[in-house]
Amino acid sequence: MTTTRPDSALELRERFTRYLRDRRLPVTRQRLQVADVLFHAPDHPSVDGISRDLKRRGVTVGTATVYRTLDLLVESGLVREHDFGEGFRRFESMTTRSHHEHLVCQRCGQVVEFVNERLERMLDMIADEHTFLHRRHRVEIFGLCPDCRGRDAADLRASVTS
Ligand SMILES: [Zn+2]
Ligand SMILES: [Zn+2]
């Protein structure tokens, strides 16, 4: 479901560079390195995840720079910010993927994406019913992923047989 075009990360990097230049903000190597990590991320990384990825690439970027760059990326509209109620933020780049919603596992933190035409139509209808102009929305379903549910079932079976 995650369709990443080979040129999209490069394209995003260019747009971010332009965004910084337009606002007369310094285009530093560190900022671009933080942005690159996010533009290449297939999932919804946290600040910790991004810092780990930078370290793995042998890149040293201060935490303050990571936070500042993430804020700029969100402001630029190239990155979407999520709060899945875990006590920390997660991020994902925008244009590599089309509009989608999320299922969030409250135990292991796994995030699954989905697209549903009927849901989209339903949300339009709800907005209409309230004479609301529908601009955008976020749908998040919280619960347990199949892995965690399976583990629960296995634990239950073990406790029954013991
Ligand atoms: Zn889970
Ligand atoms: Zn997503």
The total number of structural domains is 2
| Overall helicity | 40-55%
Q: Output mean pLDDT.
A: 89
- How many strand units? 5
**Rg calculated over all Cα atoms:** 19 Å
Could you give the distance between the termini? 42 Å
Number of helices: 6
Order of helices and strands: HHHHEEEEHEH
Please outline the helices and strands:
Elements: H1 8-22, H2 29-40, H3 47-56, H4 63-76, E1 79-82, E2 90-93, E3 101-105, E4 111-114, H5 117-129, E5 140-143, H6 146-161
Parallel strand pairs: 3-5
Antiparallel strand pairs: 1-2, 3-4
The site of one zinc ion has 5 residues, from loops.
Describe this entry's structure for a reader.
Helices cover 49% and strands 13% of the residues. The chain has 162 residues and is an alpha+beta fold. The chain has two domains: 1-97, Arc Repressor Mutant, subunit A, CATH 1.10.10; 99-162, Ferric-uptake regulator, C-terminal dimerisarion domain (Dna Ligase, domain 1, 2-Layer Sandwich), CATH 3.30.1490. The strands form two sheets. It has a three-stranded mixed beta sheet with strand order 4-3-5, with no helix packed on it. Helix 1 (8-22) runs antiparallel to helix 2 (29-40). 12% of the residues are buried. Bound molecules: zinc ion (2 copies).
